[in-house]
Design goal:
2 copies of one chain form a homodimer.
Chain A: E1 7-13, H1 42-49, E2 59-64, H2 68-74, E3 83-86, H3 91-106, E4 111-114, E5 120-121, H4 124-139, E6 143-148, E7 159-162, E8 172-178, H5 183-192, E9 195-205, H6 206-216, H7 218-230, H8 236-243, H9 252-262, E10 266-271, E11 275-276, H10 281-287, E12 297-298, E13 311-314, E14 320-323, E15 328-332, E16 337-341, E17 345-350, H11 357-367
Parallel strand pairs in A: 1-2, 1-4, 2-3, 6-10, 12-14, 13-15, 14-16
Antiparallel strand pairs in A: 4-9, 5-11, 6-9, 7-8, 7-9, 8-10, 16-17
Helix pairs in contact in A: 3-6, 3-7, 3-9, 6-7, 6-9, 7-8
Pfam family, one (chains A, B): ManC_GMP_beta-helix
Organism (chains A, B): Luedemannella flava
Domain Nucleotidyl transferase (chains A, B): 10-288
């Protein structure tokens, strides 16, 4: 593998993953959980997946105050100053922009990649090749995104419209960012051959990104520049406390990437490395290896003395079972259910309704049952 | 209500209720649980239901060594000597016969009724009327059973074939005890108007019963008579230890009632008091008042601070939910499931498979997972 020693890795670790409730909680969001059958958490796996393209000194995690300690413990090799703690959530443009501004003061023409803390990648070597190709595009001055070659007409992701039909191989111009489509539109997108899934991964030179941020979001640029100038110094907390709360809440897609695409500045590299955003339990069930020959998936299981997970299935198939608390989960005569057992809450949900788990969390908040959220 | 001061009440409290696993366990069988929404356990409710027909001094419980302490604590008004503890399970004829033999030594022509510890009765006054009518039949020298007027062609119960069509009102001759029927046969039984459900409740003079026991099962009669003679005396334990293990394991239906019916000695009173044997979670769900207007039933719930049970249902109907551990149970987009949460095990089962929960318990035993049984 060609190593790209100058790559800075930025990992925005935010969001509570409410569609993975009751496993994922506000206080323990999904990126802090091991969900893949490996002992590594999603955050640790993200750092590990990139460690041949960078070094710990060039790896930064941006996270909220509630999770700073957990992030620090899960990533003991990361220098302390590389955990950037946001005083309050200000959406992805502030998070990624802060990292870009901080990196810019260390190395103004550094190349940085931004990678979500809670995605799965099946083929690490293919992933590394794609990122290296994106780095080459970034060196040329493009704001690179990683586009995933669609495997089906998914309606849960945004899409990238490319300038020409997309075959294997690197760098295409991105003409437009498209919202999550309706089922019909998704079929059109995929059959056209010109659309890729927007995986929310970006690679760019920080000077190019910050110039676009300044052009499109001057107030946000000024605020982040002021914070970055004070970062690590005696006035960091005072400046953060004053400036951060005033930053615009906006996603990086809306704030910068759409306008940059319209200006012809955005390109992409199609990836085929087996990507999944682990958005909900149904998706998770599709990604993981089944536990048995009838398609039951056991996630994140405490092992029993016998080394087997604490489950007992009779005439039960297509289940996604999460025995996090270690209690026995027995299932009889049921199919395609999600069953999650935690210390204080049990969820039983049809797989078709995995997207709606968020509604349960909303209901709990409304009822004032914050202990479960 | 006419009180029948001479009625002795015998409650065989055995069986582990494996179809109610994981709520019901070998160490904590169903009769020790409150399942009706009332604080009383099934055992306590059984004693309470009969307390206008008897007195604590004439109420006896026959139970196993594992449950003697719990029985004693749940029924503090019962004299100690009225808890008859079986050294090992020897089926219902030994249990009921022991009680009959012990009562016979106190009062040879006493009338005794035997009532399972784990059944539900909806209309107590109607139940009392039926028992009083059975007592009248027992005085005349019949071995009385309580027959339940069928409400549907149930295949899970045995039936009583009566000598003539059964209308409202008391005492009919029972010609035959019929095994659990196939669905077709059950329909025939119910449409014939001559069959009643066998509720496993008996009322008889102990002298009549013991005479039939002596005639049909002389060895069992001799053994029980020897034990009863030593009961409460200095040699009780020695005699029990020697004689009890040799007693025939046989149900009272097979041992005595079928032969007595053939001899014209058995009669019945049709009951319409809303009876249920709480054999499994599906049955339990049919008996209890729903929690909401879409037919969800919440059993045995620990109350939260708000006074509400810890459940959250979205687009979920026809569920039977048992939040025994007090954890929150959330259900989304599912129907007709049984969801039981206990300290160490969770069950998710389709209501149609409620009868097969026993198979899970068998599997756990086979695997050596006795901690869950």
């Amino acid at each position: 593998m060609p190593v790209t020693p100058l790559l800075y890795v930025v990992i925005p670790a935010g969001g509570s993953g409410t569609r993975l409730w009751p496993l994922s909680r506000a206080g323990r969001p999904k990126f802090l959980h091991a969900l893949t059958g490996e002992p590594a958490t999603l955050l640790q796996a993200t750092v590990h997946r990139l460690d041949r393209l960078t070094v710990p000194e060039q790896t930064l995690v941006v996270t909220g105050v509630a999770h700073a300690t957990a992030v620090g413990r899960q990533l003991p090799d990361l220098p302390e100053e590389n955990v950037l703690v946001e005083p309050s959530p200000r959406d992805s443009c502030a998070a990624i922009g802060l990292a870009a501004a901080v990196i810019s003061r260390r190395e103004p023409d550094a190349i940085m990649g931004s990678f979500a803390a809670d995605h799965l990648v099946r083929d690490r070597e293919s992933f590394e090749r794609t990122i290296s190709e994106a780095v080459a595009g970034a060196r040329e001055g493009k704001l690179m995104t990683i586009g995933i070659t669609p495997t089906h007409p998914e309606t849960g992701y945004g899409y990238l419209r490319c300038g020409a039909e997309v075959g294997p191989g690197p760098v295409r111009v991105v003409e437009e960012f498209a919202e999550k489509p309706s089922p019909d539109v998704a079929v059109e997108y995929v059959s056209s051959g010109r659309y890729l899934w927007n995986a929310g991964m970006f690679v760019w030179r920080v000077d190019v990104f910050l110039a676009e941020l300044r052009r499109q979001q001057p107030a946000l640029f000024d605020g982040l520049t002021e914070i970055a100038a004070a970062w690590g110094g005696p006035h960091q907390d005072a400046v953060l406390g004053e400036v951060w709360p005033q930053l615009t809440r906006i996603s990086v897609d809306y704030a910068v990437m759409e306008g940059a695409a319209a200006a012809g500045l955005v390109a992409t590299v199609p990836g085929t490395f087996g990507w999944n955003d682990v958005g909900d339990f149904d998706t998770l069930g599709e990604v993981l290896e089944p536990y048995d020959e009838v398609g039951n998936v056991v996630v994140n299981a405490a092992k029993t003395d016998s080394g087997e997970p604490p489950v007992l299935f009779h005439d039960a198939g297509g289940l996604i079972v999460v025995p996090e608390s270690g209690r026995l989960i027995a299932a009889l005569g049921v199919e395609n259910l999600i069953i999650v057992d935690t210390e204080d809450a049990v969820l039983v949900c049809h797989r078709d309704r995995a997207q709606d788990v968020k509604a349960l969390v909303d209901a709990l908040k409304e009822q004032g049952d914050h202990q479960y959220v």
